[in-house]
């Protein structure tokens, strides 16, 4: 048993309980949590602060009106520090809460409970309005609906009607006149806010502070102004969430002044930890009490392992550790290795051609694509501009590739499109080119050169101008071909390099929704080129122009390079 020190006696038991769970390892916690509890101990040791224990007990007692089986230790810890800990001058010690916690931990329930606590007479401040703010109506209104549903429970309704008045849009304390509302980004009425606390739900969706600032400008008109930021991780980078994470990490890791922020962060310490289910508690400290949620996360984990890029929310939302581009690669090492099988002699066979000509001052590539049943065969060529500004950044053995005839070096300011057209024309003497596909936005650069060899972009039977929607459609086909190891590229190091330089990205989405579409992008624009792969993707958008047996297997021979 841990010996209670004199210093610990200053710490309220609800705070101390969670601290000791983290310190003893009773709960599996991340490094952020370990640093936080050490920091809280230090603050109680060195500062003239205290917990209003009577107020805290009253607050926690309000949980009986909610359908909670119990209040989790982390919730008691957060409410005690954020809402009930004060400095010697009576001001809140941590008026700003930053709570990054895994999906399913009880974020909305915590917001609902905190809202009722601060509206109640136990707060002691009249007209202490609670504004729950979010980017969309559902996130703004969900905690409010939780409060209303709790109040309308037949076991509670008659008693709570004496203390609160509510409609579908708001809840008001009859005694303090404090009002709880959910608010979205609509600017209407924001200037009139007189909030006691502004609670932001899911700040990961904010790209900048414009709306955050508008919501918070009304603070300070009431005593003890507070801010709460509750969120999972998200896909918007360099926005409000990343900025707040940087601030929180500065407090925990660098000893920066906290300026009133309580940095409560729950996440995995590294992506490798996800494979041990015992570590999941690091991102979700409620998980030990929620067996149904654990079962659901176990299912999601198995789905994520099979296809990481189609369930990126598992790492981002459940584990609060967004997948990086290296974790959402095009395919696995084994699948990429399988593409190295020898190519058959494809002389005389029908094919389609994909072109990638993204930058005339950088790289360009052409791929010839064949099909035999499920098998896809492909070969091609690439060009590199020696006057490219990115040349020094490229670490690949491009000189060797040039010596081997796989890559043409162009010592001119730009790559002349005639080079690509001439290559296609030369190969077309040996193979039957059914159609050419290329990026819609790059056709103007190649149109004249392609016309010289008989391919007119205005003729849809000859040339397909590829749009993002075309890549969305073909993405599942490409994924299936990789997973079943249907792709054959032969000994093609440039292609393998290009694929390894590519990440899978989600298609455009609206806030609060997910299109379920995917596309490809460079991992890093300056040094990681992926033109050969994007040429192959273009070719895949027109492979349905080929009969399924258009490249019947013949004896394997090395493909000739140009």
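Q: What amino acid sequence fits the structure above?
A:
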């Amino acid at each position: 048993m841990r010996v209670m020190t004199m210093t610990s006696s200053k710490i309220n038991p609800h705070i101390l309980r969670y601290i000791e769970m983290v310190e003893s390892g009773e709960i599996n916690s991340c490094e952020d949590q370990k640093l936080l509890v050490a920091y809280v101990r230090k603050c109680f040791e060195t500062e003239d602060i205290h917990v209003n224990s009577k107020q805290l007990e009253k607050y926690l007692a309000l949980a009986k009106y909610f359908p909670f089986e119990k209040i989790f230790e982390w919730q008691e810890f957060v409410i005690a520090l954020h809402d009930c800990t004060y400095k010697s001058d009576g001001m809140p010690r941590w008026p700003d809460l930053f709570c990054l916690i895994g999906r399913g931990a009880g974020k909305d329930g915590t917001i609902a409970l905190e809202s009722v606590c601060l509206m109640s007479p136990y707060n002691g401040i009249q007209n202490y309005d609670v504004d729950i703010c979010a980017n969309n109506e559902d996130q703004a209104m969900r905690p409010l609906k939780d409060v209303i549903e709790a109040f309308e429970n037949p076991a509670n309704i008659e008693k709570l009607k004496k203390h609160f008045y509510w409609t579908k849009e708001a809840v008001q304390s009859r005694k303090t006149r404090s009002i709880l509302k959910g608010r979205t980004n609509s600017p209407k009425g924001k200037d009139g806010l007189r909030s006691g606390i502004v609670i932001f739900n899911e700040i990961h969706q904010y790209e900048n502070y414009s709306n955050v600032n508008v919501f918070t400008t009304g603070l300070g008109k009431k005593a003890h102004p507070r801010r709460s930021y509750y969120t999972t991780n998200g896909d918007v980078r360099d926005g409000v969430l990343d900025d707040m994470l940087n601030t929180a990490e500065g407090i925990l890791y660098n000893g920066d002044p906290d300026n009133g922020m309580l940095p409560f962060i729950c996440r995995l310490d590294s992506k490798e930890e996800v494979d041990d289910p015992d570590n999941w508690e690091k991102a979700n400290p409620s998980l030990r009490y929620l067996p149904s949620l654990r079962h659901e996360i176990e299912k999601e984990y198995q789905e994520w392992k099979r296809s990481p890029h189609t369930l990126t929310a598992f790492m981002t939302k459940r584990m609060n550790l967004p997948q990086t581009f290296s974790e959402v690669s095009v395919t696995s090492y084994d699948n990429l290795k399988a593409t190295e099988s020898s190519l058959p002699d494809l002389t005389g066979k029908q094919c389609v051609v994909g072109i990638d000509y993204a930058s005339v001052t950088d790289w360009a590539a052409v791929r010839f694509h064949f099909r035999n049943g499920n098998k896809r065969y492909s070969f091609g060529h690439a060009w590199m501009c020696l006057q490219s500004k990115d040349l020094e950044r490229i670490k690949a053995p491009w000189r060797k590739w040039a010596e081997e005839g796989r890559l043409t070096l162009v010592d001119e300011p730009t790559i002349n499109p005639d080079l690509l057209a001439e290559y296609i024309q030369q190969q077309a003497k040996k193979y039957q080119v059914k159609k050419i596909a290329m990026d819609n936005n790059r056709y103007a650069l190649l149109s004249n050169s392609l016309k010289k060899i008989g391919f007119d972009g205005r003729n849809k039977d000859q040339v397909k101008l590829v749009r993002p929607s075309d890549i969305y459609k073909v993405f599942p086909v490409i994924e299936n071909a990789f997973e079943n190891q249907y792709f054959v590229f032969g000994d093609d190091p440039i292609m393998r390099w290009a694929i390894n330089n590519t990440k899978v990205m989600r298609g455009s989405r609206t806030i609060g929704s997910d299109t379920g579409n995917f596309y490809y992008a460079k991992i890093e624009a300056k040094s990681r080129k992926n033109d050969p792969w994007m040429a192959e993707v273009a070719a895949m958008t027109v492979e349905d122009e080929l009969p399924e047996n258009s490249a019947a297997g013949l004896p394997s021979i090395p493909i000739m390079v140009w």
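Q: And what stands out in the fold?
A: The longest helix spans residues 31-46.
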